[in-house]
Amino acid sequence: MIVGILGGGQLARMLALAGHPLGLHFRFLDPSPTACSRGVAQQIQGPFDDEAKLLALAEGSDVVTYEFENVPARCVAYLAEHANIYPAPRALEAGQDRLFEKRLFRELGIDTAEFLPVSTPQALALAVKQLGRPALLKTRTQGYDGKGQVMLREGQDLAEAWAAIGGVPAIVEALVPFERELSVIAVRARDGEVRCYPLSENTHRDGILRLAVSRPDEPLQGLARGYATRLLGHLDYVGVLALELFQQGERLLANEFAPRVHNSGHWTIEGAETSQFENHLRAILGLPLGRTEAVEHAAMVNFIGALPPAAEVLKLPQAHLHAYDKAPRPGRKVGHATVRTPDRAVFEQHVEALQRLAAGAATDKNH
Predict the structure, then answer these.
(1) What is the pLDDT of residue 366?
(2) How many CB atoms lie within 10 A of CB 136?
């Protein structure tokens, strides 16, 4: 069977690596000649809006999926006329626009921070007056890893903030004084079966995920599962979806969802019975879903900007290195390592060691 993927980044790479043991073959469409999936799948090089390239991706593919949500929705809709594509274009459209996304959460009874749409500098001033500061100004589209966002603090010039996002349609969101950042990775099969992985506790810096730790005994798991199940059912979703959340006491506030496999679920590669990548493939191909329980203590540490020496990672006996075959660059995700062990003390030691290696590699590259 052949799986087509829109996008050729590290998520496409990991999908292909998860599918090879299942006897699957992969092709992907990406405009970059150095896309990091080129070593594990056939590449069709070209822009996402090239209809001839989209048809080449569809032809012979048993199913098509995508690895990031900023693929133009019209391209996915065009593909849907020529191939089986999961998740459906409707899910992609809902996840691409922060205003639509927030309104969908409210419609489904999923708690969120207060927000207001803004499309002019005057509307921005009124929204800030109503919501107060600090607040976040976020572009409605094309925002990820902290891009398209400006913090609005007391005394900050709103005209400068508006210019910083390019004066495009946006939302203003009340800043949430959260205790933890969490995410739930869920998968829904073609027949409607839903399975959820244990909550991930996430640590970000500069808008980029640095650490994700599996929390299998989390009391808020049921609430997060309920949110994800509602969202998956409403969208008639097939595949893996990630819902990002803020914890406020016993409340979970939805931040955003990603209609794809997700960085905070990388620990599942070694730390769960079935990884998020394999379960995404099982779902879109109509295969039985795999179990989602964590097998031991598990976590993922991202390597941003540059990789540490492989030997330094691999000398940690419970660590597993995943390099993405990407050139070093500040702020770029170039790899990660997972830790999986039954020993809590060893787990914490390995996580701390990997964080030091990640910080050291980034510092060395920047200097």
Answers:
(1) 57
(2) 18
